[in-house]
Amino acid sequence: MERVMAVYDVEPDYAERFADFANQKEKVPFTAVAFSTIEKLKEYAKAHPIELLLISAAVPAQMVQTLGAGRVVTLADGEVVPLPDTYQSVYKYQATDSIIREVLAYYCQQTVEDAYMPMGAKSKILGVYSCLGRCLKTSFALTLGAQMAKDGKVLFISLEEFSGFSELIHADCQGDLSDLFYFYRQGDCSFTRLSSMIYTWGNLDYIPPVKYPEDLGQGTGEEIAELLRKLARESGYEAIIVDVGNLGRQAIPIIEVCDIIYMPVKEDCVSVAKLEEFDSYLEVAGKSFLQDRIRKLKLPYHSSFGRRDGYIEQLMWGELGDYVRQLLRGK
Is there a contact between 164 and 243 (Cβ–Cβ < 8 Å)? Predict the structure, then answer.
């Protein structure tokens, strides 16, 4: 059954622009329907159930109640001051992505959702992992995600203790991977909940990494792996790229759920010795089947580091970006 998010605002064209944007974002689990007048909204509500209503704060509460919406969030054009016994409000003059995340977070607070998932095939899980340090692993993972997102729906997840991702893109995020872990353990990891934590950089969707490394240690590798399986089944993405951090033995259950494991390597004698030890460990641990999924990559050293501002864009159009594009073309 179609789940409707009705949108009405007193400002001309606001609702239409908002609905157009929301309907282009597959991560929004509602069909947004815009209304230019309150009369049209009333008529629609008589014949159609409204699961979620975004409506101008200027509309009297008594009138809002007559619409019979399941959940209501008001659009405020000034400072949002929470008041008891009133509807939740969001500031309407901010990025539409931010409004959607706030609205979905409010919806999840108030609603126990039935099982819901978008239609589509199971996502491929592409892991980026290496037992070596300073091998361009994270740079490769980001470049891979940004390139793949040009042609499809891609979700990026970093399991690094200190990923640096939020600093590189100057993002100020309200929810992150720690929150997702928490809700997953509470059995409250619905698609709507997930959608309220997803941010976008360029074309690439991502869940902000943990702020505190201790949060990664709260769960076992098996728990993280099961969460990734759930996301692959229910998120609707074509691919999920996982930058697997230095998790020790906890990394093995995570790379087991990956369809492909990209492993950056180096050719100095110490690195070669470490890789040989890793291969031996897989044999002893009965995980030698993972060798068929591992793609060992000798990445090009990218000389054009430049400034930190725009670093990921520099990766995309430098030596590493060229390498990734050739890799994806199968060359």
Answer: no
Q: In what order do the strands lie in the sheet with 239-243?
A: 199-201, 204-207, 154-158, 239-243, 124-128, 260-264, 294-297
Among 254, 249, 328, which Cα is nearest to 295's? 328
Query: How far is the C-alpha of 169 from the C-alpha of 314, rounded, in Å?
Result: 13
Taking the C-alpha atoms of residue 222 and residue 241, their distance in angstroms, rounded to an integer, is: 18
pLDDT at 81 exceeding the cut of 60: no
Helix (H) or strand (E) holding 155: strand 154-158
What own/partner pairs with CB < 8 Å and gap ≥ 24 does 132-138 have? Answer: 132/264, 132/265, 132/266, 132/271, 132/274, 132/275, 135/264, 135/265, 135/266, 135/271, 135/299, 136/264, 136/299, 136/301, 136/302, 136/320, 137/243, 137/264, 138/163, 138/164, 138/165, 138/243
Please list the residues that pair with 66 across neighbouring strands.
none
Amino acid at 297: L
Alpha helices per DSSP H over 80-202: 96-110, 137-148, 165-169, 177-185, 191-195
Residue 314 pLDDT:
81
User: How many Cβ atoms are within 10 Å of 149's Cβ, its own excluded?
Assistant: 23
pLDDT tens by residue, 184-227: 988 888 888 889 999 998 899 999 999 888 888 878 999 999 99
φ, ψ for residue 71, nearest 5 deg: -135, 145
Q: Which residues contact 79 (CB under 8 A, 6 or more apart)?
A: 91
Residue-level pLDDT at 115:
46
The answer to whether residue 302 scores a pLDDT higher than 70 is no
| Burial per residue of 309-330, b for 16 or more beta-carbon CB atoms within 10 angstroms, e otherwise | eebbebbbebebbebbeebeee
Closest CA to 184 of 145, 138, 235: 235
Lowest mean pLDDT segment, chosen from 4-13, 167-176, 313-322: 167-176
